[in-house]
Amino acid sequence: MKQDKKEYILEVAERVFSELGYEGASTRYLATEAGVNMAMLNYYFGSKDGLLKAVLERRINVLRQALLAIKEKPISAWEKLMQAVDVYLERVLKNNGFHRLIQRELSLNQRPEITQTITEQVLQNTKVLKDIIQEGIDDGSFRPVDAEMTIASILGTKYYISNSSHISSRLLQVDLTGENVMEVLKPRMKHFLQDFLQAYLLKK
């Protein structure tokens, strides 16, 4: 039962942090939204930083488990990579506010322990992508490309569009400041990344 309550607090905290940011989400408001008292919040997580850290680890780990499951499938490296990109876009675009929170924490670096947590967790995810790309290089289906720069290009496409919405709106000729716009843009991003990776990775 305790685990259920803890999971519920994490779900609520993720929503609140996504909507209000770290500074805007007071521990009192977080406790009220989760229907618990401050003592319970402190018992499980110790502090607001501890709660944010737990939220980040939980969310990023969910994506990693999905990527690891794809990596182990008995399919080609190309199919694995396309499924991994699809899962990545589905998850990050579904909760764009949460991923903006991650980028804000990384860019401001005001809480070194949180920054370190995000860095270590995300790098574990990028390692799965690197392993998939390396598998394709090793079996000869991919060109011997720079795997790290390939990953940076995949992640960078989403990050630039999301974090430079005013410029990207003009560039892509679509208003990226509205509600659920990333869901509308998702097919275009998927199609571009598939074409880009196909041209870059696959041997002629």
From TrEMBL:
GO molecular function term, any single one: DNA-binding transcription factor activity
Record InterPro entries: DNA-bd_HTH_TetR-type_CS, Homeodomain-like_sf, HTH-type_TetR-like_transc_reg, HTH_TetR, NicS_C, Tet_transcr_reg_TetR-rel_C_sf
Origin superkingdom: Bacteria
Entry annotated with the keyword Transcription regulation: yes
Pfam annotation, one family: TetR_C_29
HTH tetR-type domain span: 3-63
SUPFAM superfamilies: Homeodomain-like, Tetracyclin repressor-like, C-terminal domain
Keywords (A to Z) from UniProt: DNA-binding, Transcription, Transcription regulation
Keyword Transcription regulation in record: yes
DNA-binding region, residue intervals: 26-45
Name of this chain's protein: TetR/AcrR family transcriptional regulator
Lineage summary: Bacteria, Pseudomonadati, Bacteroidota, Cytophagia, Cytophagales
